[in-house]
Amino acid sequence: MTFKGGYWGKFLDIDLTTRSIKEMELDDEFARKYLGGVSFGNKILYDRVPAGTEPLSPENTIMWMVGPLSGTSFHGQKMDIIFKSPLTGNLGFTKHGGGIVWELKFAGWDGVIVTGKAESPVYIYIKDGNAEIRDASRIWGKDTMATGVMIREEVRDEFAKVSCCGPAGENMVRFAAIMGELGKAGARSGGGAVMGSKNLKALAVRGTQTVPLANPEKYNELATRLRKTLGLVPFPAVKRWGTCPYTTPSNNCKNYLLSCWPEVQRACSAEAQEKMFWVRDFSCPGCPSVCFRRGVIRQGPFTGRVGESSEYDTSLLGLSCGVTDLFGFLNNVGLCDKLGLDGTSTGSVIAWAMECYEKGILTKEDLDGLELTWGNTLAMDKLIKKIAFREGVGDLLAEGTKKASQKIGKGSENYAMQVKGLEMSGWDPRGWPLSSSFRPGFLVGTAIGYATASRGGDHCTDQSCIQDAVGVCVFATGGMAGVSVPEELVNLLRLATGWEDYNLEEYNITSERLWTLRRLFNVREGMGRKDDVLPERHYTLPISYGAKKGMVVSREEFEKELDKFYEARGWNKAGIPTKERLKSLGLENMA
Question: Do the Cβ atoms of 268 and 343 come closer than 8 Å?
Fold first, then answer.
């Protein structure tokens, strides 16, 4: 199929069991219906992976997908990675930025689809239109930083970009991350474990082609104009500190036992990191947001270690675990990146273990002699390594909070801060204790968002999803002031693809189609209203501090709001999309 622009019209389809490498055609109707990225991946996963498929089996599929705006002059881009999650048993997806987004598109592909299992460790190397499965025995066991270096040396191309798993993925830790260069993490849902289960160490890509655009002159003109709106950003903190400052007003402390812990929040704040850790900032290629920071630990037992600053979600390794030692906290953030662990889930599972230790459910003997008290960063350093290599108690914690708590019981399930098996990020649905600018009562949108999220405890819905499909980063577009982001993305899509009649209504319908498609995948796995719930703590334990002191999520109001949400989505009372809704979205064959 020949496209005017935006797409190459083909996927790379690889079976590691048979070592076959094929080209799969992308047609215009499919592209327009699903747009790209995560949306392509969700549909292909639904079609290829039957209900009940074991996520760590060869039959699971993992995909790296880009969108129609990927590899173009528009600032801020990410790629989507889609699979069935070994952590939840439901739909899994994640994303990371970095140069591999551009390289894959420059190489002439709209995505890479991988199934099967190799007999021994391998990596996939793509150079423009050529792809090969290469031996990875030399790099198996290496951390994520060393993996990229070694692969670039082997392919003799310093510009090749790598997406890989670390030791955690090789050992199939259920929340193992997929890492790009310099801390660009596709952290959530356990994609690294899926790679490990396939003996797939990495995807390495080098592209040299120019991405086709239907109207390149007008497209680049609009992209340049939109880039200039970032100078009017109403969120200067993002450009200065990345997502790190969001932790102060919103994040949970001590496994959601506390809503504010000033000593901890000051110790691990963006200001403290800027003053005592950062050396330089950097960004994904071409993005002026510059939201990543890199630094060196300057004192304490981890002196000399180099790594990335914390982001919003990785702050759970600090705040949620009661850490007041800035350098110990940053060491553990960097350690998760090197070993290929999701910092959010790792912080949450350690916080769960700390609470279990405090309550006597887990003993020092159970923890291999570790004194797992709140804030003990030395014990955390050792425990993170145990998790990545599934050693001792690390084997239990590598299962994630839901499965680990089910294994030991004793009421520990009540301390597992997860939804559908995925550990929650830091936004507290009861309210943000240091912010009084929101509606009275608990944060309905955050609570419903967490409970109904397709992959589990996250807070991203329609506009975030559709921007993933298009191929752009929500943090970059979030800084565009004085413009309507959806309308401008529609304008860019017209100019990129040549779809002159494409409009905002069709764009929004695609967003709803994607959200419903995700729900269908999970419904097929047996998920429904019973799974759209929050941890019990949010209904019963009041916020302890600040403007929202005393607040809980009202169970009665939550259920009423859930009914409204289902109705707005076109789902029935059980949380299942109706036949009428599926027909309106062109998904009637998936009923």
Answer: no
Give me the pLDDT at residue 231, please: 57
Tell me the C-alpha distance between 227 and 158, whole Å: 28
| More reliable by pLDDT, 218 or 285 | 218
Q: Is residue 459 helix, strand or coil?
A: coil
Query: Most distant CA pair in the chain: distance in Å?
Result: 67
Task: Using CA atoms of 454, 458, 462, 466 in order, give the dihedral in degrees to the nearest 10.
Answer: -90
Question: Exposed, middle or buried, 371 (CB in 10 Å: 0-12/13-18/19+)?
Answer: exposed
Handedness of CA 132, 160, 149, 82 (dihedral sign): negative
CA 453 to CA 462: how far, in whole Å? Answer: 11
- Estimate the crossing angle of helix 377-389 against helix 343-358, to 10 degrees: 120
> Phi-psi category of 70—alpha, beta or left, where left has phi over 0 and alpha has psi -120 to 50?
beta
pLDDT surpassing 50 at residue 392: yes
pLDDT above 50: residue 447: yes
Tens of pLDDT, residues 86-128: 999 999 999 988 899 999 999 999 999 999 999 999 999 999 9
Task: Calculate the dihedral angle through the C-alpha atoms of 373, 379, 381, 384, rounding to the nearest 10 degrees.
Answer: -80
Sign of CA dihedral 212, 216, 219, 221: positive
| Strands 61-65 and 20-25, sheet pairing | unpaired
The full set of domains in the chain, from first to last, is: 10-213 (3.60.9.10), 230-423 (1.10.569.10)
Extract the tokens encoding 304: 């000399």
* Residue-level length of the chain: 591
Q: What's the CA angle centered on 319, arms 317 and 324, to 5 degrees? A: 95
CA atoms of 177 and 12, how far apart (whole Å) = 22
What the block records as the tokens of 200 is: 């797939």
Residue 35, classed as helix, strand or coil, is coil
Distances (CA, A) of 394 to 261, 346, 361, 366, 424: 28, 11, 16, 10, 20
Q: For residue 500, which amino acid is it?
A: E
Strands of the 122-127 sheet, one edge to the other: 130-135, 122-127, 200-206, 161-164, 178-179, 185-186
Q: Look up residue 70 and give its two tokens.
A: 């990927």
**Checking phi first, is residue 199 left (phi over 0); if not, alpha (psi -120 to 50) or beta?**
left
pLDDT at 233 over 70: no
Say how far apart CA 216 and CA 198 lie, in whole Å: 40
Return the H-helix or E-strand segment holding 478.
none
> Token digits for 15?
């079976």
Residue 234's pLDDT band (cuts 50, 70, 90): very low
pLDDT at 427 (0 to 100): 80
Read off the DSSP letter of residue 253.
Answer: B
CB 283 within 8 A of CB 291: yes
- What whole-number distance in Å separates Cα of residue 584 and Cα of residue 565? 18
Angstrom distance (rounded) from CA 194 to CA 189 = 10
d(Cα 302, Cα 378) in Å, to the nearest integer?
Answer: 9
The span from the CA of 482 to the CA of 228, in Å, is 11
CA dist 78 → 37, 70, 183 (Å) = 9, 8, 14
pLDDT in tens, 471-498: 988 877 776 666 788 999 999 999 999 9
List CB contacts of 149: < 8 A, sequence separation 6 or more. Answer: none
